[in-house]
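Hi support team,

I submitted a single chain yesterday and got back a structure, but I'm not sure I'm reading the token output correctly. Could someone confirm the output below corresponds to the sequence I sent? I've pasted both exactly as they appear in my results page.

Thanks,
R.
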Amino acid sequence: MTKATVESVWDYPRPPRVEPSSELVEVELGGQVVASTNASWRVLETSHPPTYYLPRTAFVAGTLRPATGRTWCEWKGQASYVDLVVKGSAGDVVASRAGWYYELPSPGFEVIAGAVAVMPALVDRCTVDGEVVVPQPGGFYGGWITARIVGPFKGGPGTAGW
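Hi R., thanks for writing in. Yes, this is the structure output for that exact sequence:
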């Protein structure tokens, strides 16, 4: 996929599809890059910007901490959560429940087993090939909006029934 490709979220499938990505994906917290990879997966679902799942090896050692709570996705199964934590000069910087993963995802999503998705709104910033990501609106979904992704997007006011 080239950067020049424009994608409408209304062309994404339902149920969602997972695909590999070789884009440089980075996550920053506390002024530090806490994850970086050229080998992630994008989950693409109608009306949603892509959600990126990063292999655990992309994260700096010690930045992922188990968090409480679980949720259920009708497509991917039971999600577990992690906090992202970095040591700062004034103490730890913590992004509570900023990441989630599927230990045993549903059939069709096995490739993302254990990989961690990050909620862009809960960290300093996320980038895709150097472009700063805009978080999907609403605070519930974890989509990553870049210039090549066009909506409208589910998550904002009035979109709950989409």
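A quick pointer for reading it: The chain has one domain: 8-150. Let us know if anything else looks off.

Best,
Support desk
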